[in-house]
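Two proteins, back to back. First:
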Amino acid sequence: MFKHLVCRGRFPFIIGFLVTVLLGSFSANADSIARQWNELLLQAIRNDYARPTVHARNLFHCSVAMWDAWAAYDNDAYGFLNNEKLSASDIEQARHEAISYAAYRVLKVRFQTSPGAEDSLQRFDDLMIDLGYDIQFSDLDGKSPAALGNRIAAQVLSYGYKDGSNELNDFIGQDYKSANRFHPLIPELEGNTGLYEPNRWQPLAFDLFVDQAGNQLVGPPPFLGPHWGSVSPFALHERDAERFQRDGVEYKVFYDPGAPPLLGDVGDKEYHDGFMQVVEYSSQLDPTNGKLIDISPNSRGNNDLGTNNGAGYTLNPKSGQPYAPNIVLAGDYYRVIAEFWADGPDSETPPGHWFGIANSISEHPKLLKRIENKGSLVDDLEWDVKLYLALGGAVHDAAIAAWGIKGWYDYVRPISAIRYMAGWGQRDVDNNESYHPEGVSLVPGLIELITPESIVSGARHAHLAGPGNSNVGKIAAYTWLGPDAISDPVQDTAGVGWILLQNWWPYQRPNFVTPPFAGYISGHSTFSRAAAELLTAFTGDPYFPGGLGEYIAYKDQFLVFEKGPSKTIKLQWATYRDAADESAISRIYGGIHPRADDIPGRMIGERVGINAFEKAVQLFGN
């Protein structure tokens, strides 16, 4: 059915993303040629290192190659890099061939050093051979569709070598130096009071690091893409960029949101409250507490931009009927959205996730393929090449905007900040020996001081007393118990309970913990809102086809590093923006971002998506 949306839990299965009725098998021959190459690209991303910036760029550049090949046979369309105009007796077949050679040549180069290269490169070859094309044909000269495709690919690859990404040196931000490079966090050890600069990103040190795509790496992962603000964009405007200097290194920042909250400086209270909200959200990752919530569009979504104030929708505008309630265990829902939007093992990373969503939308039987919902219906190929160009441009620009800000502000992640503050003690009572101005505020039932009374036999902190009651005066938190509570991910659920807050873990795998780059601003928030705005504009409708998008996470088959969900859950969204907002807030439940990272990402993502669509429309021509 929707073959790109395969479960990323422990038992692979195929799900219906947008509809709840089976539509039957969807064969490769039914896909446009652009869709076939996009599917291979998404699979190659799943087999590669998890680098959202790099893969947003790959998605965009492959989309450019396919668009420029299509546009060469349309007198009104403008290519992004190549503006040749050719004729052919069979336009459809010429486009088919030119697109294939253009995509093939780009992807063969882009994934030649991937950890999944053997599989991915063979897939590229196999598709070309199945299509009847000669993979040895590499000529650039002449008017044949194959030569045109090769020329376009050569232009895309040449463009990429000088676009500021540092592709030839494996995308390394060579001049960046972490302020905490000599003080990495070792997650298996207690505390983090040795953190040198609590407002800046801190590397994590592992014996073995496993990235979001499941690849094993040795040593502290370096900051991914601190220089990405200087990469050549699709539709970002120079008037919206500023340049800053730190340690002799220039950082280019689009849509500068200003500094994030800083501990001991401007925004100290928001710094504290935002990171403690992450702890609070972690305390809700327990399905055994029996709390039920309605996650249908009847009661969720319809937020104002930059808020979570929505109360849902009175009616489904497509059916004219109310949305049916969807009552689930809150602890299951929060765990599922943290995992679904995390884009973990074998995923296509956040930008690719939105391509998957777009492909599902394109398959929906209720979708009418009219761009902007105006004019005549277009065929599948025209729809796909235009959608991919616009969406690829949006996620590529979202990466540039978000990572430009990440590189410049170099902001701390929750695991570093929470452990750091907790290690110092509490900040409420200054005549107490546990007081420190950079400590945490106490919240009864959530964040408490360990006392002689709270560690007596049968008391709530008894198990936290430590040797010789050495933990008296430290901070306890009622939150997700972390990976030490899981012996067997197939059988165990960590649950929620009292732990030393200085040992807090995000809701992630213990050999991944947190993405290897700064937090502010959230990439998920930026990618997702940019994609949602783009899909809204491109389809001419903010709503999913039929007024409802869905994803099913089956009981005990979806979660990766612990058992769950305890019951099958169906995620639901009325609009693309609702899905984007859920993606954004999921990162707080996952322990990856505080709200200060989230909201600016949503605001910037909206501007990125709108600009990308306007640029794409210009290239579409009349």
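And the second protein:
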Amino acid sequence: MSLEKKSQQLKNIVSTYETEWFLGDLSGLMMNIASGRAQDQLGKLSSPMRQLYFLGGLLITSDDSNGKDIQYSPEKWNEIIRLLNEIENEYSKLFFPNIDEEIDEEWKKIRKVAMPSFLSYFNQGPLNYEEQSINWITELYTTLDDVIEASIGLKTIDFINFYENLDALHQRNFQSFSPKGELKLNWKDYTKLEMVNTAPPELGFTPPESFWAMYHFVADQGMISRFYAKELISDDLSIEKIEKILLLLSCSREESDFLYYTSTKPGNPLYDKPILKADKNLYQVFEVKQVLHSIDNLLENICSKNKNDITKLTKTKGDLLERKIVSIFSKFLKKDFEIYTSYYIDNCEQDILILWKNHAFIIEAKGYNLREPLRDPNRAFIRIKDDFKNCIGYGYKQTKRVEDKFQNEKPFKIFDKNGNAITEINPKYYGDDYYSIIVNINSFGQIQTDLSALLEIADDDIYPWVVKLDDLEVFLLTLLKKKKTAKYLVNFLLLREELHGKLICSDELEICGGYLINKLNEKFVEKYDTIVTTPDLAEIFDEQYRKEIGFENEKYLKEKRSGKYIFW
């Protein structure tokens, strides 16, 4: 009841704000999370991105009859922060012991798995770069355009063009308020705020139009997020297609029972429909990148309406995952390597084997979708354990099958699907230099970064490296940019094995970044029994991205290389 009461109280407070202004202000705050700015408003939030999304969801599902406020009072904002954090704490209490409940080792094990999995699932949004989402959506769904077009009359490229045009417009809108930007002649059409545009006499001069525009933007940051449908028209995107997509990806403020940020029915509308249908034929995007995730979810749902479509989607997704892994390693290793895919050992199919000089990388690709964790810890543990077993656990069994061949030190052959020998491998050439890697599409968070909680291995065995595809790509591309060799990766894998059993972390890139900046090294790992990583360890990847990281079809390369632009 405490959770319900506090959530309802917060929704009542939020409902007093004007829709477009409030969502615009939240959007501005979200853009300041990574930079560390706006600490007066963000500094006390425990999970800023998810909590701001929660506020937006509460607003968009509240009665708008009282939605007039366009400014926070310090007291009101502090009350919002207090309730947000208390609500977050209420979710944590779900995993606390009940009165007279026996706390034994099994109880601790269940909470050790269920609690971080639950909080990570709901508190941590998708962690990747927009190019990764664009490339994935394009490569996956273009091959399924027959299903998509038959359902909604649009193709994958239409959604990509829509996103690109929206993103470009959003950037232009932001740049238009900079000193060197080109201000829109009709900039006043994008705000409802009525502000005094008369300069005080003591100023001594009449400010230019750009001054008043910036004056409005500071007070109403949603200005850069608002647009008319016609502004997205391009040679390859008609107004008819734009309007169809807006119908699929936009929502209006409409009262509903949404109250908990862990709710899915009804869920937060801003995740599936992150574009607000505002007044005067205007639209307002809440977070531009979320449009990509919404497109991905929409197309996946369209391609999962019957058994045949699901089978086709699963096969296509698995093939794409393997191709991407091969592409990433090929780019990183450059030369002196052999790659074998869809090979067989002991009549069992394996995914990828990479032989580089006297090193072997045994790789399994997993496209398993995670199910939403349940609130009850005991039931949640069963579901999480099953998902883990079917994805990471099964991948481990597959890599272990190949590891055993290397460990036996006897020459063995690998075969194609028809039983023809592809090549013979002599394990003595590789010694102990063989490494198991499981690459999945979705991360399991804490129980993936530290496998000791759920993965059972023999005492003399070692844990594989389990990494999300996007994180693998970011790490290896950054190693390339930093001119690190494949031997550097091997040393990382050796250190990575030592972290299991002592790590508290839900983001693999924090570990990779910590290694890159030498804050996670052998001496450090040996010194501590418990290692807690922090988000700042992954900042090295954002720094590299702002310069150029090496993605296929990387955006704004000219601007990045010039070093003269700030991106919103």
